[in-house]
Structures are given as structure tokens and as C-alpha cells.
Amino acid sequence: MCAQSGEQSAALYAAGLFTEDRRRPIAQWHNPAYAAALLVAPETSPEWPVQRFGIFYAPPDSGFVRVHSAPHEWNPRQPRKSPTEHEAFLAAIAEAERFLQVEMDFV
């Protein structure tokens, strides 16, 4: 991500995702045989009015790509209104798993 977005942008993203806002869920898959990874993580900062989970793919030895998918959003100001954070997270995981299945079909 540093190579594609710059060190400052990658550091800000990593800070919000891994150190400053640990209450937000992430899901990740790693294939050490191919040196590839897939991550479902929040892609909006906590102060935004609408939150969104994104799907990010690190293909074998070739950078970092955001997987374009349906929006997996929720509104934290209306925590009980569908889609909730949990529903958005589960939808993003399901889409990430479909992406992995497609990728496996090409291996």
C-alpha cells in the first residue's frame, strides 16, 4: 500500500485500522503458498456519518488493489436501522468469499 498510495496515506490508514480504532472488525485471509492476502476492513474514518467496509486484495507479489463491490455501508447514528454494522460486515465477508472462489477458479 505504501508503494501505491504513499507512506503518509498508508500510515494514516493503518493507524485508524489497527491501532487507534480497535473496536472495528476486520476479516482477513492469507495464502502463504502464493504470498497473497485478502482483507475486509473499514474504509471510512470513524467520524464520517456513513461507514463502509471495503475489500482489499494483495495479489502475489504485485501490490494492493481495492476490490470493487456492492457498498457495504451502515449509519452509526441509527445503529438499529438496517443495514447495521454487523449486517454490513457479514455482507462484505460474503462478497470477499465469492471473490476468493473466483480467484481459485483461475489458479
From the N-terminal CA to the C-terminal CA, the straight-line distance is 24 Å
Structural class: alpha+beta
Strand portion? 25-35%
Spans with pLDDT under 50 lasting ≥5 residues? none
Order of helices and strands: HHEEEEH
- Strand arrangement across the biggest beta sheet: 1-2-3-4
Main beta sheet strand tally, sense and closure: 4 strands, antiparallel
User: What is the helix tally?
Assistant: 3
Which descriptor suits the 3D outline? flat
Radius of gyration: 14 Å
Helix content percent band: 25-40%
Topology, number of strands: 4
Rounded average pLDDT: 82
Quaternary organisation: single chain
In short:
With 107 residues, the chain is an alpha+beta fold. The chain is 37% helix and 28% strand. It has a 4-stranded antiparallel β-sheet with strand order 1-2-3-4, with helices on one face.
What does this protein look like?
The protein is an alpha+beta fold and 107 residues long. It is 37% helix and 28% strand. The chain has helices at 2-5, 7-20, 85-106, and strands at 27-31, 36-42, 51-58, 65-74. The mean pLDDT is 82.
What topology does this entry show?
Elements: H1 2-5, H2 7-20, E1 27-31, E2 36-42, E3 51-58, E4 65-74, H3 85-106
Antiparallel strand pairs: 1-2, 2-3, 3-4
Features:
107 residues; 37% helix; 4 strands
